[in-house]
Structure formats: C-alpha cells, structure tokens
Amino acid sequence: MADQYAQFSEDNRPGEIPAIRWDEPPEGPVLVLLDQTRLPAEEVELVCTDASALVEAIRSLAVRGAPLLGIAGAYGVALAAVRGFDVDGAAASLAGARPTAVNLSYGVRRAQQAHLAVLRAGGDQEQAAGAALAAARALHREDAEASGRMAVHGLALLDELLPGGNHRVLTHCNTGALVSGGEGTAFAVALAAHRAGRLRRLWVDETRPLLQGARLTSYEAARAGMAYTLLTDNAAGSLFSAGEVDAVLVGADRIAADGSVANKVGSYPLAVLARYHHVPFIVVAPLTTVDPDTPNGASIEVEQRASHEVTEITAPLVPVAGGEAGGAIPLAPLGTQAYNPAFDVTPPELVTAIVTEEGVVSPVTVEALAELCDRSRQV
Ligand code: MRU
C-alpha cells in the first residue's frame, strides 16, 4: 500500500488539479468536481448535470471546504438557470445542503440575485442564466485573488510573531487548493512560508472522522514538496508539550460578528492547547466567511453528521487505490451511536489573529472585525 502511495504522489506531483470547473460539452453545460472522497487513492471527476447532483456531492463531501462550497453553490445556481430548471428551488436546496459554512449561502445568493436582477430589468431567461454564470465565475476569480492576498498577509504575520523564520506550523483539516479558487486559506500561508524557505515543518492533524488532514492536506503538502508530518488528532497535546509547535494555522467555516470561529471539529481543543503553551492560534479566512448576521458563537448552527462516519470506515475512505465503494469496516459494535459534530466553535479570546484578504484583525474584537468588513465594502 505504501508503494502505491509513493507511486501515486510521484506521478501526480506536477501540474494543477482544479477542484471545480465549468464545462460545456456538446451534451450541455456541466459542473465538474474532483471527487474529494476518493483522494488520495484516485483522482476521479464527478460530473454534475443538475443542482440535485451537486447537493448530493456537497452532503457527501465530494466537494467541501467553505470557500469552495461558496463557489460550488454559485455554479449550481448557474447550472439550474442555464439548463432551464427551477432556479429558486435549486438555490434553496443548495443553500440548505450544509448549514455551517456561510460561504455556501453567500455564493448561492450571489448567483441567484444576479439572475433575478436581469429578469427584473426585462432580460430573458438566457440573459439571466448568463448573469448567474458570470456571478459564479466572478466569485471563483475573486476567491483565487483573496487566497493570494491572505497568503501575503499571513506570512507577514508569521514573520512578525516568530522572528527568525524556520516555522513549525500545526494545521487541522484541509485548507489548500482543494477548498478554493486559488491556493487556499491557512494552507496557502504555510505554502508561502515554504516557498520563502521559512517553513521547517507542517504538522498535519489527521482530522477524524473523515480524515481531511490525512487524505487531503498530506496530498497537497506532498505535491508541493513541503516537509510535513502527519499526526493523530490526539497526539497534538504531546507535540505542544515537547515544544515542537510555533504556530497553529486553521481556516474557518463561519466567523460570527464577535470573532467566534466555527471550523472543523478539533480546532477548539487546539486553540486551548495553543493558549496554554503560549503559541499563536491564527485563523485564515476570506471575508466571505465572516457573517455579520451571526452575532456570536452560540448562534452558529453546527452541522451534526451521521454516526456511521465514526462507527465504521467506508470505502472509498478506505485508502486503497481502486477500492470498491460500499465496503464498510466496523470500528464499534453494531448499533453504537456516535456524537459527530462536523465543527466546533472557538471563542474570540483564544484567537490570536484573523487573517483576511483585506488585512489582519488582532486582537479579535467585534469593533475591529466590523471595521475591516466596512473598509472592504468601501473599496
Ligand atoms: O467538513 P469540511 O471538510 O467541509 O470542513 C472544512 C473545514 O472545516 C475547513 O477547515 C474550513 O472549511 C476552512 S477551508 C478554507
């Protein structure tokens, strides 16, 4: 199995794999996703011809990660419009596919509003569909640009907090090109440090239960030639206590107005550990992840997922190249119920800084976050 992995990563290191792309084959427009449930064993594309296929892909995490969910949601509305389906129905089901990442409803709304604006102005269905697609493409492009700017701000912050370079950074879940129009959020900062010769090691939490760290972040780090080491989530404490972590970099699915950060479950314990060990805990996210309408952490809806994700491991998550889908290996006795929140919420007082494309908020306060959002709206 190890050989298969080595072979796989050697073969695939060069070149880009877009996580999402719009295509227009003769049979009609489609949204093509890289099926993230099959990585790293296989690079398999998933072709969505309608919004319901995309909703299923979102629920199964074939497409995932906050910024990419926003982009996918916008393209999903465009797909419904271009193919002549019910746009408002598609928008409602896409926006409700997962509740926590606010980017999803933002992306859906943006394409839906572009569509509606054309119809209200007397345009026809084709023009309205064109506007929805243009909105999706604009969001895709803007997210790529935001990613580049977050990397610049984030690296400057790391250098300021940790003079001398040689950073050892711990990250959780997956926040690279697989979740973004560009190179990602937290991962993009680590990548910038790597390219600048200032990343000594990327510590990658495996991220139970769906292993986004082990399967996806390791995949991205290997492709980028970064020095990385995978650890079980439970091993983070001993890593901190050994003095091996200089900073924690994570993304976010929703940032409330008070600076509370919802991110992949396991982020909050890292923030607690980081505070105890005097290590900066840095959140990197585009402004599309900040939700001024969510006042605080308690108001964030945290997605609860099925027990079986914890109680069994199911192909294609079984990391065997060419593995057949559907085979489940039990990890607990049949009938065991699991507590399986997809996210947790870190209070603002444990967050050293929030890095966005428009700059850094530190310390994290309601006022500082609101000021940054206002400033970006004026640009
Ligand atoms: O359940 P997932 O895999 O969609 O969760 C993703 C995360 O929690 C990421 O850390 C978050 O979306 C930030 S990605 C830029």
From TrEMBL:
Q: Where does substrate bind?
A: R64, G65, A66, R98, Q212, N263, K264
Q: Please, which domain of life does this record's source organism belong to?
A: Bacteria
Q: Which UniProt keywords apply?
A: Amino-acid biosynthesis, Isomerase, Methionine biosynthesis
**Feature type site, description Transition state stabilizer:** C173
The yes or no answer to whether the keyword Amino-acid biosynthesis is present is: yes
**According to its UniProt record, in which pathway does this protein act?**
Amino-acid biosynthesis; L-methionine biosynthesis via salvage pathway; L-methionine from S-methyl-5-thio-alpha-D-ribose 1-phosphate: step 1/6
**Residues covered by region (Disordered):** 1-21
HAMAP family, per database record: Salvage_MtnA (MF_01678)
Q: Which family does it belong to?
A: Belongs to the EIF-2B alpha/beta/delta subunits family. MtnA subfamily.
Question: Which protein, by its recorded name, is this?
Answer: Methylthioribose-1-phosphate isomerase
Organism source for this protein?
Streptomyces aurantiacus
